[in-house]
Amino acid sequence: MRIGTSLVLIAIGAILKFAITWSTSGINLSNVGVILMVVGLVGLVISLVLASTARRSDVTAQRISLQTTVRDDNVDPPRGDDPRI
Q: Which of 10, 30, 49, 81 is the most buried (most CB within 10 A)?
């Protein structure tokens, strides 16, 4: 369950708890709304904890850079009369 799903469950639960005025036989919609809000809240807390630990491990991860050395054997050796030497 991700953050978006948790927020949707909280919103649907709040609608069932506070906005619905009609009742059904056998199911108390107010209780269903409370259950959905609690499940959404628990899912939101778990999602935020997992997201914060994932970010922390990415920051502390060591990066390995691979450097390659290219050797060019076709380069002429410097001449003795070269003034740059």
A: 10
